[in-house]
Each structure stands twice: as structure tokens, then as C-alpha cells.
TrEMBL record:
Residues 355-464 form the Pyridine nucleotide-disulphide oxidoreductase dimerisation domain. The keyword Oxidoreductase applies. It is an enzyme of class 1 (oxidoreductase). Its EC number is 1.8.1.4. Binds 1 FAD per subunit. The keyword rRNA-binding does not apply. The gene is lpdA. This is Dihydrolipoyl dehydrogenase. It comes from Novilysobacter ciconiae. The lineage of its organism: Bacteria, Pseudomonadati, Pseudomonadota, Gammaproteobacteria, Lysobacterales. NAD(+) binds at residues 190-197, 213, 280.
Length: 476
């Protein structure tokens, strides 16, 4: 047993919540340690959490590669560009993804050195009196004592009892990023962010993709007008999305994975070569708390916190996927900054109502704030305006005219309550809605701002104008 080491802050978890919290705390003059158990494909410690190693960043790399290939096959001819017998080298594509991941995990290590954050590689557990015990990968144990501990352990994929991950035929997001060849038939359980993104990757490369979604409505979290447009575009692309399909069995046989599911027509069967299970994620809090620690977990395994991410136990905080709120990397990062600043005696707060969502399919889907249905359920009077990308010069010139932007405003105050988008680059465009809502702006504020022409963002402008039937480039 090594001698106990003392810090002002110990962060458990080196993902987008934890590493950001550690860096910000160090910037504020605090002595900081960060504990992380993540390993790269080479078996060596790799900071960055699920998001960087096997989530957000690698999936975007594959989405971009597959999009380039798909456009070469189906889109470039419209521009007068042709190529004979193009082919995709999956090994090179995956290698490029791995290189990008290594670049960024290494970048965090360099940032830790620059900010004098001390990393510890292994599994951390919280004990009484803010003592963190770390079982390092070499089997040794270290003890870290801190005035403040930030729990940022993230989340894990949910495994179905009848479809256990085997890393080959039945996989989670990790395996779905590392196929060594394009599967002829890919089954996906869950039409959420992971299912749609990875389903899109392999569909573009030639796989027959069938997505089984238990819910009766597609992308229920998004505004209905947006999900309707997205569903239509995905169908055109060949994604077979079956709604109300509840899977009950997955058997691995020589000829593939045999699935049994029930839908409105009764019991159905499907055989696929690979099965991606993407039914959601749960807080990674198993074996986190030592005996006698007063930190509470709810029925979902999440750490209970107040609006400032404090657990109620002196000096113990929790952020990111292991607490309430959306399981999004950027939400975790902002909570990490807020908690570090609160520890340093500064104000810190995250407005969960203005956290943006983005799905990086083609077309992209993004939103911030309430949907029209949510407003009606809450009895909020609204007025809405929408505008299609098909009427936008830049989108048409890019050969990406699918989609629309919808702005929802309070019918009496005109304050923007939600902005919902489906179309090219909307993961970037959504932030005009975020900023407007953060500054408590009105639809008229957006409508009176001058947007560059030609630009995709003009669709946001026209949708804001349409709230009061003032859109210029469509009939109101």
C-alpha cells in the first residue's frame, strides 16, 4: 500500500465531464487528480471516456467516411463527377477512425500535463471522508484524499438478457464501430441516436439494415414534424425501420443471428449476420461507493444530486451521464465546468432546458427546447413557423435540399421555446436557437437579425419570420 496522497479535488472518471472538470479546477489554482479506467484498443490507458474512445468521435469519423463513399456512388454524378468501380476498404476506414481517437486521447494527456492534473489509471471507489481508493491496472492500490470529489463515471450500454454481447455477432456501440467487413445483413435493436448513426454508416456501405424499435412512434423525443421528415428520408436511403417491434429472442446460429419479435401483425422472425443492440445506456455506478458512504443512488442507478450537482454529502459532487438530465457529452462538460467553479467559490450553473441535441445522420437532426406536443401537454399557448431547406439556395446548390427548420414561440410573449431542425449541418445551426433561448429572446429577435446570403442558416431566419407569417421565400 502506497502512502496516501492529498488533493484539493479528485475526479473519478476521465470522460468529457471528468477531464473537463479536472482541467477547469486546475486552471482555478486547485491541486487536482483524475482517476480513469479506460483503455484504448492497444490495451494502454486512454483518457476521454466513452465519447472519445468508442462513442461520439469515432462514430463521426465513420459517418464521414461512409458519407463520402455513398456520395461517390450516388451523389457525385449530379455534379458531373464520375468514378469507375469505387470500393471501400473497411480496414483503412476503421484505421483512420482509430488514428483520430488516438490523436484526441493523447491530446487530453498533454492537456493534463500542461495544467498539472495528476492522472491515475484504474478503477476508483469513493469511501467515507472523501477518500478515493484506486485499484490500478497493474493490481496496485493508491489512496487519494480530497476536500472535494467529483463523480463523473459516465454510462454503460444496456445489455438485453436474451441478447448478450459476444463482441462478434451481437455487439454494442463498441463492436458496431469495429466490424472488419460490411455485414450483408445488419440488425439493430433501437432507433435512437446510436442505432440510427451506426445503422446509417453500414447502410451507406451496402449492408441491408433493419432497425427494430419497440416504441410505436419514430424518434419520439424529437418534434413530430421533424421526425416525420427524417423518417421519410431514411426510408428513401433504404433503412428499414420497423416500429412497435418488440424483440423477445436472439439466437446465434451458423447462418446468422435469428431474431424473434412481435409487432402489430403478430410474431415475426428475422435473420441477420450481425446484431447491434442500442436500447439505451445506464449510469456506470456499480461498485462505485464504499461501505457507509452517504451518497444516494436512485432506482436507475444514477447519483442523486441537486440543481448544482451536489450530492448532499459535504464535498461530493456528481456530473454527466451518471446523474439526471440528458446523457450528452456537452452537458457533462458544462456541468464539469460549473462544479469546478462552484468549488473555487465562483458562480456555476447549467440550464438543462437549453442543452442542444444532435443526431449526425444524413440529413442531420437537431433540436433545443420544447416540442410542440410538450407545450400543448403543459398548456402553453404557442405559435410556430417552419421553412424548408428545399427553398434555400445554398442547400440546393449543395444538393442537400431535404429537411426543414421549425421555430416554436410563446403565443403571447413571443419568447422562443424550441427550435427543431432536420437538414444539412443542422448540428451547427441549432446553436442560433440555443443562444436566442439563453438570452430569453423572441422569435421576432431572430427574425430581425441579418443573416448572410446564401447560407444554410437563412432557413432559421425564415422559420422565425414564418412564426408571424412573414417568411419571404415561401407562401405563408
Amino acid at each position: 500500500m502506497s502512502e496516501q496522497q492529498n488533493f484539493d479535488v479528485v475526479v473519478i472518471g476521465g470522460g468529457p465531464g471528468g477531464y473537463v472538470a479536472a482541467i477547469r479546477a486546475a486552471q482555478l489554482g486547485l491541486k487536482v487528480a483524475c482517476v480513469d479506467a479506460g483503455l484504448g484498443k492497444d490495451g494502454k490507458p486512454a483518457l476521454g471516456g466513452t465519447c472519445l474512445r468508442v462513442g461520439c468521435i469515432p462514430s463521426k469519423a465513420l459517418l464521414d467516411s461512409s458519407r463520402q463513399f455513398h456520395n461517390l456512388l450516388h451523389g457525385f454524378a449530379d455534379h458531373g463527377i464520375s468514378a469507375e468501380k469505387p470500393k471501400m476498404d473497411v480496414g483503412v476506414m476503421v484505421g483512420r477512425k482509430d488514428k483520430i481517437v488516438s490523436q484526441f486521447t493523447g491530446g487530453i494527456t498533454m492537456l493534463f500535463k500542461a495544467n498539472k492534473v495528476t492522472p491515475f489509471y484504474g478503477f476508483g471507489t469513493l469511501h467515507k471522508d472523501n477518500l478515493v481508493k484506486v485499484r490500478q491496472h497493474d493490481g496496485s492500490e493508491v489512496e487519494l484524499k480530497a476536500a472535494n470529489v467529483i463523480i463523473a463515471t459516465g454510462s454503460d450500454s444496456i445489455e438485453l438478457p436474451f441478447a448478450k454481447f459476444d463482441g462478434d455477432r451481437i455487439v454494442d456501440n463498441v463492436g458496431g464501430l469495429d466490424f472488419d467487413a460490411v455485414p450483408k445483413r445488419l440488425g439493430v435493436i433501437g432507433a435512437g441516436v446510436i442505432g440510427l448513426e451506426l445503422g446509417s454508416v453500414w447502410n451507406r456501405l451496402g449492408a441491408e439494415v433493419t432497425i427494430l424499435e419497440a416504441l410505436p412512434t419514430f424518434l419520439a423525443a424529437a418534434d413530430a414534424d421533424i421526425s416525420k421528415v427524417a423518417a421519410r428520408e431514411f426510408k428513401k436511403q433504404g433503412l428499414d425501420i420497423k416500429l412497435g417491434a418488440k424483440v423477445s429472442k436472439a439466437e446465434v446460429k451458423k447462418d446468422g443471428v435469428h431474431l424473434t419479435y412481435d409487432d402489430a401483425k403478430g410474431e415475426q422472425t428475422l435473420v441477420v449476420d450481425k446484431l447491434l443492440v442500442a436500447v439505451g445506456r445506464r449510469a456506470a455506478t456499480a461498485k462505485l461507493l464504499g461501505e457507509g458512504v452517504a451518497v444516494k443512488l436512485n432506482e436507475r442507478g444514477q447519483v442523486e444530486v441537486d440543481e448544482h450537482c451536489h450530492t448532499g454529502v459535504d464535498g461530493v459532487w456528481a456530473i454527466g451521464d451518471c446523474v439526471r438530465g440528458p446523457m450528452l457529452a456537452h452537458k457533462a462538460s458544462e456541468e464539469g465546468v460549473a462544479v469546478a467553479e462552484l468549488i473555487a467559490g465562483l458562480p456555476g450553473h447549467v440550464n438543462l432546458d437549453t442543452v442542444p441535441w444532435a443526431i449526425y445522420t444524413e440529413p442531420e437532426i437537431a433540436w433545443v427546447g420544447k416540442t410542440e406536443a410538450q407545450c400543448k401537454e403543459e398548456g402553453i399557448p404557442v405559435k410556430t413557423g417552419s421553412f424548408p431547406f428545399a427553398a434555400n439556395g445554398r442547400a440546393v446548390a449543395m444538393n442537400e435540399p431535404a429537411g426543414l427548420v421549425k421555430v416554436i414561440a410563446h403565443a403571447e410573449t413571443d419568447r422562443v421555446l424550441g427550435v427543431h431542425l432536420c437538414g444539412p449541418n443542422v448540428s451547427e445551426l441549432v446553436h442560433s436557437g440555443v443562444i436566442t433561448m439563453e438570452f430569453q429572446g423572441a422569435a421576432d429577435d431572430l427574425a430581425r437579425i441579418c443573416f448572410a446570403h446564401p447560407a444554410l442558416s437563412e432557413v432559421v431566419h425564415e422559420a422565425a419570420l414564418a412564426v408571424d407569417k412573414r417568411a419571404i421565400h415561401k407562401a405563408n
